[in-house]
Every structure is written in C-alpha cells, then in structure tokens.
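Risk mitigation, structural track. In case the binding assays with iron/sulfur cluster fail to produce interpretable data, a predicted complex structure has been prepared as a fallback.
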Amino acid sequence: MPVATEHPSLVTLDLSRSSSPPSCSAGLADAPWEHDVKSGYGPGASAADPIPLASPRQGTLPLEYRRASAAELDLRIRAARHTLGSRVVLLGHFYQRDEIVQYADFVGDSFQLAQVALTKPAAEAIVFCGVHFMAETADILTRPDQAVILPNLAAGCSMADMADIDTVQDCWEQLSELWGDTPGLDGRAPVLPVTYMNSAADLKAFCGERMGVVCTSSNADQVLRWALERGERVLFFPDQHLGRNTGKRLGIPHEEMVVWHPDQPLGGNSPEALMRAKLILWHGFCSVHKRFTVDQIRLARHRHPGVRVLVHPECTMDVVDAADEAGSTDYIRKAVAAAAQPTTFAIGTEINLVQRLAKEHSQHTIFCLDSIVCPCSTMYRIHPSYLAWVLESLVDGRIVNRISVPEAIAAPARLALERMLALAPKPAVQ
Ligand code: SF4
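Fallback model:
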C-alpha cells in the first residue's frame, strides 16, 4: 500500500491527458478540519447542496493531529493499531482515499462492511471509515457493547440528508389519506416503503414498522420485486435515480413512476397520477453520480473506440441507458477484475474507486468519465489525522466519535435490514 502524503492532492486519469487535471473545487487540497467549523458539506461534489441544520458537526481536532506530518501520522496509526490488535477492526469504504484505505482490515461497499462488522464479535470497537449512515447501520447490526466509531462526525451523506423522518411521515400521511391502510382483495398493502441503505436509521425504522425493507444498489431489483408482491405501490427513498433505473429494469413503464417533491402538496402529483403509479420516487440524488452525462459517454466512445462504459445506478436514467453496463461499486469492481483481455474502461462512479481500479489493473486502461476531479465531499472528510486521533484515544481508554442508535429506533430498523438480509446472498469482501 502506498505511504500517505502530507497533503494528498487527488489526480485523475482525465480524457484530455492533461498533466494538471481540473478540480471542482480549489479547496480540495486543504486540510478537512478547516471545514469542520463551517456549515456545509465542504469541497467536493456536494459543496452546493443545502445541509440540514441538525447535521452532526465535528468538534475541534486536537492541534497535534492537525500539525502532524503524513509520515508521523503513519507511524502513530500503525503503532496504535499494533497496540489495539484484534480489539479493533477498521473498515474502509471503496470511496475512501488511499491514504485511509491502506489501513483498513476490510474494504467494501456499505452493505458488505456492515456484514463484516457482524463477523467480528471479538472486536470491542469498529472504526468505520465511511459516512454516517454506514456507521449507524453497523451499530444497529452489532452487539450493544461494541462501539462503532466514525472518525469525522461531519462525514454525512448529502443524498441521505435529502429525506428526513418528518417529511417522509408527512408524505405517508398524505398517501394514507388517499388510500387508507387496509390491504386490497389480493392482500397487498396500498403502498409499501422501501429505503435505500443510504438513509438515516430512523427512516430504516420507519420501513421496519410498516412491513417495509432496506435495499442496496446490489440487490435493488430483488428487493423491489419482493416489495411489489406485498404492496400495490412502493414509496422509494431517498434516491430517485436508483429507484427509476431499477423500476425500468423490472419493466415498470415511465408513466407509472412519479417523483415526490416533499415541499409540494401530494408531492406535486395529481391523485390520478399517484393512483396509476407503481413507484413513488423521493426527490433525492447523489451529487457525485449526477455529474456523469451522456456527452461524457459520447466523448469517451469517440476518443476510445471499443471502450466499455460502466456506471453506477445512482446516475441518471439517460446515462445508465447510454452506458454498456450499470451496477453497484462491487459490480464495477468485479467486472473490471473479470475482463480477461486488456480493455479500456470508462467508469462513472466516485474518483477514488476509479483511481484505485486503474492502479490495481494496469493491464487495462481505466479512466473516470468525468475529467474533473470531484470526489464525494463527505467521504473526503475522513483524513489520517482523524484516524490517528480516534485510534490513540482508544489506546488511552477513551471512545471518541461513537455512533449510537437508540434501541427504540435500532429494533425496527434491524427488522427492515433483516428482511433485506433474508433476500440477499451473503456478500464477499476483499
Ligand atoms: S457518493 Fe453520493 S451517496 Fe455516496 S456518500 Fe457521497 S454523496 Fe452520499
């Protein structure tokens, strides 16, 4: 694994092959703690997204960690890990920067990492290098005495923040007024809630209490099929694009998928449109994946005849339709690994994963569809300085940045997750 650099500047394999690729924000090279005192998601793809007032903020990181060089942080992290041994397991999401991934015991997507956490009952602490909803999910699924730690509390998710319990409950009440709660003659509920893994714990609990379920980008087809066997319609939140792309794959016509705008009565729909709908899609999106466009795909095909275009299903439907394949981060990773012949891949997902795939598979030409460096703002907030701080605190017997979901929320959320787990095959991790 590469040794961390003091101020890691992110570079991309851009289509123009320029030696200094443009970035979506001049602030990307700054130390993330400079943004802990400011409101907002920080530099990166979500910089312009409005952040909820109640979003967790990270307190001041002690000066010694802000001042430490990359080499010093590396030594301190390794020493703390050595001291803690199997008492701690460190999980790293695919979208984390290499400076963090190099320390991870397991690297994977949110669902895989939550599952891994379950297989480590001896660990007293799980340090989750990812974002807030992932740490919550790990806390819901693990034993109460295992501490789940998020190194930077400001690492949220702008998409997850686009749906909150109050507005979802308000939507549900409006839908209940239209149809009531009584199942139809075929036994199906008028509407069933399905939440993407990228959502707060109280929204998972909301689904658990209403016969609903959680899905991931790996199992959305299977989960949606299951839900439509039990509900005449599905209310899907927060990502409209994953919902729409999955609905289309299942053969649901466009006119039977409506978007719910939470700030408008009936979500901006007529009662007739809602009555006709099979899928009611919350107006949420991922600011990383919405950067990918059909024009970028055209350019990649023009410059690289024969290129294989792989995108994530959080991209818009026109992008997914124009790509060769769409799938979860794990799907993309496996598709690249499985290519027997040297292949050119243009990939539409977060830059850190694309760059890592390019390094790991030098027999292929791999580049990001978007030539501008623009990582996920919130994944980017985890930096070796925070990691060193949480690990050394554990060595000193202190738990900092613990993510704890109250049992009243965790129990129904667990139910929604367990319904999904009963459907999904066990995931693999690297
Ligand atoms: S990549 Fe998108 S969905 Fe994933 S954590 Fe970042 S903002 Fe959220």
